[in-house]
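MODEL INPUT / OUTPUT PAIR
PAIR INDEX: 1
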Amino acid sequence: MLSLAQTLLTALALALLLPCTVLLVQVLVAFVSRQTNPVPDADTAKVPTRVCILMPAHNEALGLEKILRALLPHLNAHTRLLMVADNCSDNTADLARSIAAGQHPIEVVERQHAEMRGKGYALDFGVRHLEANPPDVVLILDADCEVTGNAIGTLVAQCVAQQRPVQALYLMRNLPGASTKSRLAEFAWLVKNLVRPLGFHRLGLPCQLMGTGMAFTWAHISRASLATGHIVEDMQLGLDLARNNAAPLFCPQALVTSYFPTSHEGIQAQRTRWEHGHLGVIVGQVPALFAQSAMRRNLGLLGMALDLCVPPLALLVLFLVAVCAATGTFWLALGAGLMAMQLAAVALVIVGIAIVLAWLRFGRDTISFRQLCGVPLYIVTKIPLYFFFLVKRQASWVRSKRDGET
């Protein structure tokens, strides 16, 4: 029995070394990368392709005008906007039509369905609507996101040149005066959406789709399985594409931004959907992805499987601390399991090094070193979220509550 316990603890510690090593490699490669800031690369007007910006929108009237007016300069004879007002109970559709005023290439379609709710269904509705007059490239942009500089032209140019899905750098930011906890969340987002994909990008590996700022050729998006209520539909879409040898490419030169909610309800809904969805994919698909990538000799799918095996940073650290405590107790009480304890400690050090390097290179404008030291408390506050994944996992799509909504 003692030998079995030692073996299990050692196997667990070894298993945790894989995501920790992947994380460190991603951070190290990004750390030595020269390019850190998005730069303009192309102009939409110079891209000889027909582009449709597909924007799913659910009750977005509160902040929609600002987003649409910022997009108007990017719309022209080659680039149009299709908004899908999905299950809206406000004036989202009417507001978009009034902004277009017949002078801009903006089309609004409305969808209502009592049961099939979620972003995936809205995207599928939009793609099916485009079949009558399909564009060359479809660029998906959420209704609360802003594009920076020539991000649209850059994404389209890359998509056409590579004939593969392309993902922009998507960053979420806090409003001024945000709490330390919120700034730590922003730093974690920066690591997930900039540092890690940039590292793999420099190694020639693909990235996960991030839900917005995504460009697809018509051939890829028209055949995609979109009509689902999956809570991380973007992640699932990226995996489906990778299985068909069309793994998404990261484009750090194109920047898309949005803001974290400030209400407690909005923050909790957003984080629960993201993290429960990510964990569900890890548990349900990662082992099969490794097997499929080996059988098909699909390097892109292998890269996405390796990236997916890295859980949210807070959960990874919690796992490592728990394993260190368990193996340490086992060793002190029974004098056995030293190797397992050492492996767990090494994994914890690896994660610590990765976090510090990511902060040194990319995060100092987001949080101070003093705030970074609040990571342990931040991790503790997320324990209930992970507990509910075990006992009451979120399985259906829920839109995050926007600031100002009642």
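PAIR INDEX: 2
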Amino acid sequence: MSSNRGVVYVGPGKVEVRNIADPVMASPNGRKLDHAVILKVISTNICGSDQHMVRGRTTAEPGLVLGHEITGEIIEKGSDVEQLEIGDIVSVPFNVACGRCRCCKSQDTGVCLTVNPARAGGAYGYVDMGGWIGGQARYVMVPYADFNLLKFPDREQAMDKIRDLTMLSDILPTGFHGAVQAGVGVGSIVYVAGAGPVGMAAAASARILGAAVVMVGDFNKERLAHASKMGFEAVDLSQSDRLGEMIAEITGSPEVDSAIDAVGFEARGHTGGEQPAIVLNQMMEITRAAGSIGIPGLYVTEDPGAVDDAAKQGSLSLRFGLGWAKAQSFHTGQTPVIKYNRQLMQAILHDRLKIADIVNAQVISLDDAAKGYESFDQGAAKKFVLDPHDVLAKAS
């Protein structure tokens, strides 16, 4: 293993690629992990969730190595790893999960009870998620490898579809989870709030689940144009604050069967200012009675940059009575990636889901990570994939 380099959060609005320590098979508190592996990172993606930290909208401390969307090759393995071998190419769920606790045994790996002393749920390179070092780097350690890692069945096939397969670590299962939890099925009328990568993944998921109409709403013209190009009904939110009326222009009804919030707590309204509850309230308005709302968009318990004191503590002004009166179902929380990634891998390998095109994946070098963060923060209609060893560049 050569010296490691990774993307480090320096402070609000700034990341740098720095030399970082080589990974070791040990937990954040120093306990030896014989169930771990070391990966040579093949691809690692910039996520909208990372942007929340980089904008200074969380309690993340400078020095945090970022990155929870990881695909890599096993180059070392612990003595307790039995089902994986050196040289295997694997997808890493962003959830760090033990596979042994009550939640993991029920496939609720987003809220593993043992990998984070502070709360249920762990993740790589993320604030308050257990201190696990991030994978926007050349090398990374993954614990509980037999349970967590998804091995690709054929190396050559995997490298041929790596731009698609890299999405299995987070955004594709997250979008799919949002669609499943919103009750999308054959013939569903679906509205997705947000045309960023997770929103586009949710729209793609709704389509393969059988939705009749999939609408994607956003203010960003470039992202809306890409959504339309991918075959979805683009809803330009800048044109009106009457979402139901715009939906009715497309479907004939102001209500939908399923709504998916892929925006989260940094939502903005027509005034341009932040309104952290606006999307959730809109979802309740446009979703039919007894319909379901999936919420893969991130909401936080602490937001130092929030517009008011309540929002700084994660308290939002919701019209919950409306949702109650309409007997709607709400589904929140981090996606349990393991619940979906194997099926979605098969959909990719068998050409049922060209997710890289749908999210407009763009491969860039690890050294260009700061430029990727800046462009993404400005609303680029792209999903940036980092290529730490120039493997993807050589393969294309």
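PAIR 2 NOTE: The mean pLDDT is 96.
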